[in-house]
Structures are given as structure tokens and as C-alpha cells.
Design brief:
about 450 residues; alpha+beta; Nucleotidyltransferase, domain 5; 2 domains; 5-stranded mixed β-sheet; 4-stranded antiparallel β-sheet; 13 helices; globular; binds zinc ion
Length: about 450
């Protein structure tokens, strides 16, 4: 699965129609969620049946394409499943009880309710919301794909306008030639001091997008607040200021994404195995003193892209538990206590390293040992039988290549972009977590 995004410039009356479609999708979502809350124990079937009832009851719901209504129900199901999942896994803290949405920004169609023009430069929405025909702006060429490969179409409202996304059923691995093995493995330690430090001694400084933009953002935010009138309908000037503020944020988040993507791709291209810490960023952001810098750095984005590119280019990505990686000596394994402010690792064995490079080495070691132990009994016997049948013709290194790519595909399943699409439920009728226990 993979996503192509195009900007569109709807006319004012089309904007109204799109906003109404989005609004309707949100209405369905919230109604279905309310129904689930009020009727303990109802499952998927009842929720879909309730959706059908809503379509009969409200004309504006009926006007939205029926599959688009279904995706709204699927969104609720996803939230519910996630909540049950978190409870089952006993994740500490809040479990994410599904909440009502009041600021939905998108509506998602499946394979009906829209039609592409002959040259695929225009899309027409054909349901009764009357969005009509939109020109797809940009250089993305949809002619490259089969229409049947387009499984979802989504209209998104952002601070700087409207976009149409196409979710295309295509294995990203099929779109690229496998890279020539670099014969290198690397451990990556992310930190507050650097964006990351790797076991090869490279250090990537933190991009201070947010900090740089901070003054501007604060100024825009102050202007917005000044125009806010408590208990009144907000003025046109308030909304102008609010949009300006939102656009500035959007710019920063795009810069951040671009950066994470670029750095991740570089690491994947120049290594065959990448090990990194399985950090609990959510827990760390709760620490107020670290919060701004952590969310600024964007590790989760970075990790998402690492795993995506790892899958795409058939490289191994391993997340290792973050335990004592910065304290232990990467040379002799002895624990050398140091506080956050101690930047250099000095061990009695004579090993002197930058704190984060030492950690990166530990992470690489852990990563390598994890990979060595992940082969299940069945998998091992498979390897042994392959070895037995390869009558001396098989070079052991190609076999290792096979194992690595096997693992790469099992470790990584989706691109960070696709998370919002809930790809896992698009093709099967059983959303994850829904199959047995409900
Ligand atoms: Zn040592």
C-alpha cells in the first residue's frame, strides 16, 4: 500500500460541499460511537446496521456515498479495538477510551463515489454531496497505476487548503530494485543532545525547526489570542489569525517530516541492518522538562520512516529494549553510572567514547543478538533443510541475505503515511484485535 497525494483548488461552493461531506462523516462517526457507548457489548455487525438506520433516518447521511459512511464506522471500530488492545496489553496510564470528534478534517471514500477522468488529471465525486469535478494539481501521475489498485480516496482539509489522497494497493518493494548490500550494520541512539549518534561515530545534530520558528509561532499565537472573544461568536479577524497560526505550524511539521525521511533513507541506503532503541516517547513527552525538545526532535516520525524504508529496500530494522544502553560499557560490558549531563563515557577498561556513540554500539550489539535469536524452531529447520538441499551450490552469504530480508518483511508492515488509513483492515473483514475476543 502506498499513498499518492494531490492538491486541489475547489471553488467556494465545492468547498462547502466538501466540508459538508466531512461533517457528515464526523456525524456518522460520533453517532455510531454514542450508540456503542449506550449499548454495552454491541459488535461490528450492530454498528454497521445502525449506520444503515442512520442513512434511512437522515437525508444528509444518505447523500454521502454509502462506502464513505462505512469508513466512518470503521474509524470507530479502529478506535474501539485500539482501546481494547491497550487494556489487554495492560499499557500503563490512559487506555485511550474512544472520544467524540469535533474537528474531523477528512472524508474517505472506497472504490465508489468517485471517477477519474480519461487522462486522470481530474476527479469527479459522484455522490449526492455535489462536490463535483476537481483538478488534480501537481506532477503525480496516476496513469502509472491500474484503477483497480486504487482502494481508497480521501479528501483532506489542511491549514493551507484541500488535498486528495489515493491509497494504492502496491507493495513498495515492487517499485524499487533491491540495493546492493552495503555490508554494514549500525546502531542508532537518539538523544536530546543530537538527533542521533550512530555506532560508526557519525553524529547528526538536532534540527531546531521548532525553536527557530518558535518566536514566529508565539507571535502568531499571541495575535490569535488577542482577537479571541470569550462567549461571543468569533470575528473574521480572529479566524484569519487562527489560520495564519495553523499554516505556520503546518510548515514546521512538514520540515520535520522531510528531515526525518531524508535521514532515515540515508541510514537505510548505507547499511544492511539498523538497530535502534524501542523508546517510550509517549511516556517521555509527559516529562514537562523534556517535552518540548522531544516532540521537536520527532523520533517517532524518524522510526516510522526507518521501518518503512527498511521494508521497501529489504533491509533489517530491529528495535531493541532500551535498558542500560547508555550506562554499560560497549567494550567490556561493565556498568558505568553517568548522569544525563555526563557527555563522555570513560571506563576503567580504557574505553573512552562519546556517551551516545557508546550507547549506539550497545544498541547494535543488542540488535545483532536479537536477530540471531529470533529464528523460530520451524524457521531454523527450514534453513537446515535448505542447507541440506543446496548441494554445495548455495553460498552461505546469500542464505543470510534471505534470512535478513525475511526478517525485514516481518519486522515492518506499513509505511508511516499509511497508519492513518488503517491499512490492516482495508483488505480483511477482521480488524486487528476484533477476530476472537469480542
Ligand atoms: Zn569498559
Amino acid at each position: 500500500m502506498f499513498v499518492v497525494e494531490c492538491k486541489v483548488k475547489p471553488k467556494p461552493q465545492q468547498i462547502q460541499a466538501i466540508d459538508e461531506a466531512i461533517q457528515t462523516s464526523q456525524f456518522v462517526r460520533n453517532k455510531v460511537l454514542r450508540y456503542w457507548m449506550d449499548n454495552r457489548g454491541v459488535g461490528k455487525t450492530e454498528l454497521f446496521r445502525y449506520n444503515t438506520r442512520l442513512r434511512k433516518e437522515y437525508k444528509f447521511v444518505d447523500d454521502l456515498n454509502s462506502h464513505a459512511c462505512q469508513t466512518a464506522v470503521e474509524r470507530v471500530l479502529r478506535a474501539i479495538n485500539k482501546f481494547f488492545d491497550n487494556c489487554k496489553k495492560k499499557i500503563p496510564g490512559k487506555k485511550g477510551y474512544p472520544r467524540f470528534k469535533k474537528n474531523t478534517r477528512s472524508v474517505e471514500y472506497k472504490v465508489s463515489g468517485w471517477k477519474l477522468s480519461e487522462n486522470r488529471k481530474h476527479i469527479t465525486f459522484t455522490d449526492k454531496k455535489n462536490i463535483g469535478k476537481l483538478k488534480l494539481i501537481g506532477t503525480k501521475d496516476l496513469n502509472y497505476y491500474q484503477i483497480e489498485q486504487i482502494k481508497r480516496v480521501r479528501i483532506i482539509r489542511r491549514a493551507d487548503g484541500y488535498y486528495v489522497q489515493f491509497s494504492i494497493q502496491l507493495d513498495p518493494r515492487d517499485t524499487v530494485e533491491p540495493l546492493i548490500p552495503s555490508q554494514k550494520a549500525v546502531g542508532v541512539d537518539v538523544g536530546l543532545k543530537y538527533f542521533y549518534a550512530d555506532s560508526q561515530g557519525n553524529i547528526e545534530p538536532i534540527p531546531q525547526f521548532y525553536r527557530k520558528a518558535e518566536r514566529q509561532l508565539n507571535r502568531a499565537n499571541r495575535k490569535k489570542s488577542k482577537k479571541f472573544r470569550k462567549g461571543h461568536k468569533q470575528s473574521r479577524n480572529y479566524h484569519k489569525a487562527r489560520c495564519r497560526y495553523a499554516r505556520k505550524h503546518l510548515r514546521v511539521s512538514r520540515q520535520r517530516e522531510e528531515f526525518a525521511k531524508r535521514k532515515a533513507l540515508r541510514l537505510i541506503q548505507s547499511n544492511d541492518l539498523i538497530a535502534y532503541e524501542d523508546l517510550n516517547v509517549k511516556g517521555m513527552v509527559k516529562n514537562r522538562h523534556l517535552a518540548l525538545s522531544i516532540s521537536d526532535v520527532g523520533w517517532s516520525l524518524f522510526r516510522g520512516w526507518l521501518e518503512y524504508f527498511g521494508m521497501k529496500y529489504r533491509k533489517v530494522t530491529v528495535a531493541v529494549p532500551s535498558h542500560n544502553t547508555s550506562q554499560n560499557c560497549s567494550n567490556c560490558g561493565q556498568k558505568v553510572q553517568k548522569s544525563l549531563s555526563t557527555r563522555t563515557h570513560v571506563c576503567s577498561c580504557g574505553c573512552i567514547l562519546d556517551r551516545d556513540v557508546n550507547a549506539a554500539l550497545n544498541i547494535l550489539q543488542k540488535g545483532l543478538s536479537t536477530v540471531g535469536h529470533t529464528g523460530s524452531k520451524a524457521f531454523e529447520s527450514e534453513i537446515l533443510s535448505t542447507l541440506a538441499t543446496a548441494n554445495g551450490g548455495e553460498d552461505p552469504s546469500t542464505l543470510i541475505g534471505v534470512i535478513l530480508s525475511e526478517q525485514a518483511s516481518s519486522v515492518n508492515q506499513e509505511s508511516p503515511r499509511m497508519r492513518g488509513w488503517g491499512v490492516s483492515i482495508i483488505y480483511s473483514d477482521n480488524p486487528p484485535g476484533d477476530n476472537n475476543d469480542q
